[in-house]
Fold this sequence. Notes:
alpha+beta, Ribosomal Protein L9, domain 1
Amino acid sequence: MKILLKENVAKLGKAGEIVNVADGYAKNYLIPKKLGEEATKQVLAQWEVQKKAAALRQEKAEAEAKELAKELSKKTFTLSEKAGENGKLFGAVTTADVADALQAQFGLEIDKKKIVIPEDIKSLGDYTVQVKLMANAVAEVRMSVVADA
């Protein structure tokens, strides 16, 4: 029986693939657990429409991410940290600190896992951090670390 997989199934295939399986496996396991459905012409046509719609959504999201990356690259934000007299910070700047500063200053909610700090920031000064919005949309944002008053 030909089955269109709705989800990834170990040792069988990935979501969206059409696989040949035994009738009993399909009727007793895959279909009842909603892991797949019989690959009829209607199901395949509906799947193609959904696939095209998903591709359009992905394309739109990538375009928006590239536009946001372009805007972010033009901006500079300030991060206030506690520092000693010689300009050394009492700790290091973390990605969570950068995410909080971007939220406070620009209203952007960016996951701290998408922020890359190239080197440890342990002193006052100007730095560049990367914000990976999507795989092909990376913004290089300038950051100024100043002493907390």
